[in-house]
Amino acid sequence: MYCFGILTDFRTELFPASKRLVELSDRIETLQVRPRCWCGERATHNARTLNGVMVVTGTQVVVGDTQESAAAVAYQTLCRRHHRRKMTAQIAEVTLNPEPLPFGE
Length: 105
Hints:
This protein is of the alpha+beta class. It is 14% helix and 14% strand.
């Protein structure tokens, strides 16, 4: 059986279903295409941001703006170093290229 998905949430805690899949798995392989942090390093953590500032508390699942907060909720992949420092691209004042990759051109 094959499964694809995110193992941990923004608090670095395993999702309950991911935890069980890891417990039952014979082998875990990282996909060939790896996400990147804004600095270019391999991203290993998911970060939830409110108005560009990383948060480490809250409910496990929040999608988009909610009535709990008027802040803009977003997610960002970060390397271990920047996750530990809570340094998002907005905090580092890095401008990410919004242009899509030129596949199929």
